[in-house]
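[job 4471] stage=fold_predict status=RUNNING
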Amino acid sequence: MNSSSVARLVRVRAPARCAACLAAVSLVALAAPSMLASCGPSNRGVEARKAANDRFDRANAQVVYDQARQALGTGQFEVALGHIDKAIERFPKDPSYYVLRGRILIEQRRTHQAKQTLDRAVELDPKSAEAQYFLGVLEQQCSNDAAALAHYERARELDPKNLQFLAACAELRLASGDPKGAMALVESGSSTFQYSPVLQQLRASCMAMAGESDAAARIMEQASSRDPSDATMAEDLLHAYFDAGEWAECLRLLDSPVLAPARNRPDLVRLRARCLMVTGRAVEARDLLESTMQAGEPTVEHLVALGYASWAAGDWVRMARCGEQLVASHPRLPEGYLFLGAVERERGNLVASEQWLEQASVRDDSRELVTRLRARVQAQLAQRGETAQGG
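[job 4471] inference complete, writing structure tokens
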């Protein structure tokens, strides 16, 4: 074959070869999208990677969440808020993070922000009993008792086995003057929380409010006997004894080891003094209150208690001193004027006594002691033919 023949053959076959190549290229182009897709991650792979990232973010957020809880427990509210904000930034889908943030804001009295945060927790989880409970706490702090009770009831409905939620409902009903409603709640939880001291405390409180003080004291005895080392329970028993008029039992319990750390607390000192007075030991009560008078300006509660103890002990000098201090520091209270009126009556200065007692009556005309003492002074003035103006 000569060179010209070869050239013709090449010219004839070349177009056929190019057409085949073009067809192959076209097929590759058509297949490219599916081929490229098969080379990238599948839908399942994307979801798996997303889940892995979520787990990583959740783990990191949980560490910061735990730090926030610890800071809240130690009262470091700003530190706790900083931690929980970082946790939410890393994993914003967990409702419990918003519940904790709401709790921190409640402690800081940042009411509006707390409500927004807890509402967000409810949006993420409408069945979050904790979010409902703390919304109730928030409303109760704002004196919105009806709204608070609705949230507590919702929390109890979502988690009926949580004693804290039942107790919140019962305590709020008690505070609202509804002992029957509170008792109904207590009884509804009797089977679930049969041996709970908290339930016994609530039952005793319901009975005490209903005027059944003796029964309340017996129930508190049973509750306290389950854990004699519980100081809170012992204090509740102490007040139950006092309400029931069991003064000797009060004094015995005040001297028990369980209350030893709180024995010198001002409110317990005043309670002891009252027990001493009603058992005929007024001088001891006066001396106790005098010896525990705090340095500087004494509290109004201490002055009132000391004034009454001095009255019972016949110590008119101390009683007058208490009256003068109360009139000077708390002129709107009736006790200072009452004490001074009683002292002047004892000294025979009936006109001055009536004038002081009138001032006490102006400040509280429902005080039975003021009314009775003033009636006696007026009767004595009438016998003498005198008036409050000395005529």
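[job 4471] summary: The chain has four domains: 54-159, 171-260, 264-314, 332-391.
[job 4471] exit 0
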